[in-house]
Write a structure and sequence with these properties.
Number of helices: 4
Shape: elongated
Strand content: under 5%
Helix content: over 70%
Mean pLDDT: 81
Number of strands: 0
Low-confidence stretches: none
Structural class: mainly alpha
Radius of gyration: 19 Å
């Protein structure tokens, strides 16, 4: 998703020749969202989902006999963890400002 979100803007500006004209004012917010905010959010989520996968594999291999590991390896827990990672990734970028004061 990190590479897919900026695709419409890149196609418009660089493939269809939109770079020769002034950017329409209606594109300003969409351009910022599609090229800056959404790819950064999905990149952050991708990193933390990789960390979550490593933790799940560690627990599954090293502590496979324990009851906590069996509870940790359910589909419901994985869905909750993914939703949590996505929410934290969004919240971490909502409160960050990419513009300098």
């Amino acid at each position: 998703m990190t590479g897919v979100w900026p695709l419409p803007c890149n196609v418009y500006f660089y493939v269809l020749g939109g770079h020769a004209d002034w950017v329409p004012a209606s594109w300003c917010f969409a351009y910022d969202c599609l090229t800056d905010y959404l790819p950064t959010i999905f990149h952050t989520a991708s990193i933390w989902l990789t960390v979550l996968l490593a933790v799940q594999r560690y627990v599954s291999v090293c502590h496979s006999a324990s009851a906590a590991a069996r509870r940790f390896r359910t589909v419901d827990t994985a869905v909750r963890a993914i939703a949590g990672v996505m929410a934290v990734a969004v919240m971490s970028h909502v409160f960050c400002s990419s513009t300098a004061p």
